[in-house]
User: Fold this.
Amino acid sequence: MQRSISILGATGSVGASTLDLIGRERDKWRIAALTANGNVTELARLAREFQPEVVVLANEAHLPELREALAGCDVEVAAGANALAEAASRPVDLTIAAIVGCAGLAPTMAAIEQGGTVALANKEALVSAGDVMIAAVARHGATLLPIDSEHNAIFQCLAGNQLSQVRTITLTASGGPFRGWSLERLEAATPQQAVRHPNWDMGAKISVDSATMMNKGLELIEAHHLFPVRLDQLDIIVHPQSVVHSMVEYRDGSTLAQLGPSDMRVPIASALAWPQRMDTPCKPLNLAQIGQLTFEELDEVRFPATRLARQAAEAGGAIPAVLNAANEVAVAAFLAGQIAFTRIAAHVEEVLSCYAPANPLCLADILAVDEEARKMARGLTESA
Assistant:
């Protein structure tokens, strides 16, 4: 029996990995929707190859170009925020929510509200709107599956167990390309160096987040919503080999860890086949060849982003949304050469200092906080 799927963010790395897996079992899947921000060429190519019901661009300016590229192709073409939400709300068996940043908030919420299963790769959705989204999941009877490698690892380690039996949950971090760099070297780090992750092939924004360790801070907040244990039960440890993706320690002293190659197709396959398993083309682990698995403590002097994220999680309310918005603006400024690498976390901390916790009641409240925080962050980066 065919299963239906929509992929929000089809031209990104998660979307590409998902379509690679689906392409190997084409007879098992019917694609309802593919979306992208503005990559017309790639979205048109995917539409011709996979024949979805609809393709949607977030950027309306490129709609005429997409229509021209798909002339004669029996695929519905649309663009804009409303079209994106409509595509996300189409009833399907599984939605892959992989739109990067706060742009993914509304489409992810639309997918949740149709009551199906949503495989979440958009960290910012739970970071900025965790309480609202988790409430919506319960209200609409949806199922949320994590496909970030760390959260999927935790999900697998928790299978068949109860959170009440958990002592600690530990997220592993590679340490990024600047692990071991001095503060002086970090001051001069370039965007080209920051996006060269030693283990993972990712987009520019998430690669910079990995370099600052903000990625791990965002994951800590996300884990707090997905696996609601106390914040003091959530730890982060640096693991340069990126073989152990996360660990769960139970009250009896047993620790379960999920190991796998640094390939996003592994956690994506876990979500695609859940609650079963499926074959992937990923190279099996060769532990003898790897030789050693090492672990190090966090250094929050050189990499303060995880401290900021934990403080934001403790404050709660709208503060995590402020953290995320300020970080997105600061990362963009760094990539554009406007600020130094070490100023990313400094700018985020400065924006956070201007806010008091508030309780957002709906997505509109969160988006309003997000926009206000972005304006303040832009002001800082422009005057830098």
